[in-house]
Amino acid sequence: MQEIVHIIGAGISGLSAAVRLANANFKVQVxxxxxxxxxxCRSYFDTATDLTIDNGNHLLLSGNxxxxxxARSIGTEAGLVGPKRAQxxxxxxxxxxxxxxxxxxxxxxxxxxxxARRVPDTALSDYIALMPLVWSSPGRLVGDAIPCKGRxxxxxxxPLLLAALNVDPPEGSAGLAGAVxxxxxxxxxxxxxxxxxxxxxxxxxxxxxxxxxxxxxxxIRFGHELRGFGMVADGVGELRFGEEAIALxxxxxxxxxxxxxxxxxxxxxxxxxxxxxxxxxxxxxVDPPQNMPPILGVVGGLLEWLFAFPQRLSVTISNAxxxxxxxxxxxxxxxxxxxxxxxxxxxxxPPWQIVRxxxxxFEATPEQNALRPGARTAFKNLFLAGDWTDTGLPATIExxxxxxxxxxxxxxxxxxx
Length: 417
Ligand SMILES: Cc1cc2nc3c(=O)[nH]c(=O)nc-3n(C[C@H](O)[C@H](O)[C@H](O)COP(=O)(O)OP(=O)(O)OC[C@H]3O[C@@H](n4cnc5c(N)ncnc54)[C@H](O)[C@@H]3O)c2cc1C
What we know:
With 417 residues, the chain is an alpha/beta fold. It is built from 12 helices and 20 strands. A 7-stranded mixed sheet has the order 8-7-16-17-18-15-19, sandwiched between helices. Strands 10-2-1-14-20 form a 5-stranded parallel sheet, covered by helices on one side. Helix 1 (12-23) packs parallel to helix 8 and helix 2 (65-73) packs across helix 12. Flavin-adenine dinucleotide is lined by residues 8-14, 31-34, 39-41, 55-56, 58-60, 225-226, 257-259, 262, 279, 281, 357, 360-361, 386-387, 395-398, 400.
């Protein structure tokens, strides 16, 4: 009889595990609590702007190998688009200065040796001072590992680490920051090409996975929230969904790919991160100027990254707990003022939407990082996945896919024993 793997949660972690296992001829059942797949990485139609928008602008880099392999496996790698070279235009809203960081296309970070390509007014020695971050332990603070001041910090290190860690960089885990730096900046421009799902997160990273799973005979159930486990000896014997219970066969397995709070409620005693940070995204219905780059780094303002999509300018603000209770209209006006300065667009506030994800990511501090569990549990047929599990990376798509792949590999290993 074919073994069944139950995937709980249809976010990127759950979907990547499901796709890997369906491709290995497992019978897959996906159970998602909500009516839509994608979790924190999804698109929806927004009536305020009359556009399909994403819950948040998601930036991938060409060095996110697991995420790209996942997109390849569902046939949508070409839907992740970006410039040919790893070039990042920036503007400083306090001075109006504009510059472009050109990381080139090499496998080595040769750009740091070229004054014309590195951050303006920085010296090679500034980059060398970042080296302690590269192999730092997860328990160390970024602020104790590198100087968190000066031009290089303000213009590159701060924006990069803020986006990756979703905390003010000095309070972040140097180990997590080091992993990001190793896999991006230190791997040269070929690992740093920015990539976005221009047609939308669901169209590129979610819906094709669902279609592929269905074509492999997977059963995908929405509005199907796992409420509890029935344990037998050292494994899961039953999945409880309110009225309904599903009994597991002896070779069956479960991948629990839900966020930390439901995971802790379902598995009392499970150690998980307990603190989270918000990300705010603002979307404005306006045609981007002709010469507008697809992604613009913004320093010295309220926003950090400005994305140009067809008919829309869209903004990301990380570590945004300070903004979650601000009146929406006031926030939209304040962000729009910065968008105008950064993009050169003029005019009154166009149709807009603000999406505030209060628990966008776990807090990437040493303290919270130490609470991340691995993929194995005390139960032999139950494995964990999620951006908050111990992936060695901050909460990102790349970390999510790695966690899903790891959980799937453990299920595969279980079949072989
Ligand atoms: C605004 C925002 C911007 C971001 N920007 C970036 C970025 O630029 N780059 C990047 O790489 N990452 C970014 N991220 C992070 C990225 O979105 C996450 O790391 C990733 O989506 C997490 O996926 P996941 O599957 O681990 O968890 P989730 O997406 O949270 O998925 C968990 C799923 O489990 C379901 N679930 C919960 N409880 C149950 C239950 N009991 N039974 C069944 N189902 C259940 C949930 O409904 C959900 O669908 C961003 C996140 C946000 C919110």
